[in-house]
Amino acid sequence: MKNDLIIRRLKFAQDYTQLLADENYQLVDMNMVEPFNIDDKRHHSSTIIFERNEQLFSIRSDWTRSLLNYSENYHLSQRFFGYFGPVVRNYETFHQAGVELYRPTDEEILSSIDMHLSFVTERYSEKFHSIVVNDDTLLDLYIDKYALDSGIRNLVHEKNLSELRKQLGQTHPLYILLSAKVSDQMDLVNAEFGDSEIMRFIDRLKQALGGYGMKFILDLSFRSPQSYYNGFYFQAFLDHDYPLLSGGEYNSSAFGIAVNLSNGGLL
């Protein structure tokens, strides 16, 4: 690894953790070796597990699960946490930074997303190209409204438009939505479910981020690679193939944002 990359990464860690401390996030620095929890394996199949003294342990593969387990075990009163440190996946080490918010309000979620975007744009003079958002409950609304079979969900996630057209017909609102340009999906979903709680939140987010000049894309076929997200989630991209910021709701009452330092284009 080149010296300048190591220095940039360490400088990022200092600047980012200082930002979080200034914003009253509790910084954490936990051991990479932790007691093994079966949920971790379920959510992260690449988790490395080993045994010592008849006790199973794992090497941290994701900060979200580690912090969630830590918070549930110790019943912490603090609601906002921040971290920077390594994770190991498939025998490779990655450095990850981010925050976890427990029991946040919509305003706190919006504020945290904005804090991350402004940190990157102001501190590093970078410009975000696009942000992609979704919430699986939007697809549930279509399935319920039109009494669709649950198998439609897999076709949507697979972007199998030919089979969707065969099963729904080309005039069905869901097929029209998914066959349209993703830039048009926001208006189409708003026309049907604009009064829903999630669309009101997504509209607020779009308005709040209008000053960044990036594309705002709602895509009902977009899924997070992390299976524990169960609500709103997003990815924000610089002019790069992989997202720099990823995050979303999980565990019904928590929200996390992770900074991709490996290939997100910042370092």
Helix and strand topology:
Elements: H1 3-22, E1 26-28, E2 33-35, H2 38-43, E3 49-52, E4 55-59, H3 63-74, E5 80-89, E6 92-102, H4 106-123, E7 130-135, H5 136-145, H6 152-158, H7 161-168, H8 173-179, H9 182-193, H10 197-208, E8 215-218, E9 229-237, E10 245-250, E11 254-260
Parallel strand pairs: 1-5, 7-8
Antiparallel strand pairs: 2-4, 3-4, 5-6, 6-11, 7-9, 9-10, 10-11
Protein name: ATP phosphoribosyltransferase regulatory subunit
GO molecular function, one term: glycosyltransferase activity
Domain Class II Histidinyl-tRNA synthetase (HisRS)-like catalytic core: 18-252
Structure characterization notes:
This protein is of the alpha+beta class and 267 residues long. The chain has ten helices and eleven strands. It has an eight-stranded mixed β-sheet with strand order 1-5-6-11-10-9-7-8. Strand 9 and strand 10 form a beta hairpin. Helix 7 runs antiparallel to helix 8. The chain starts with a helix and ends in a 7-residue tail after the last strand. The model has no long low-confidence stretch (mean pLDDT 90).
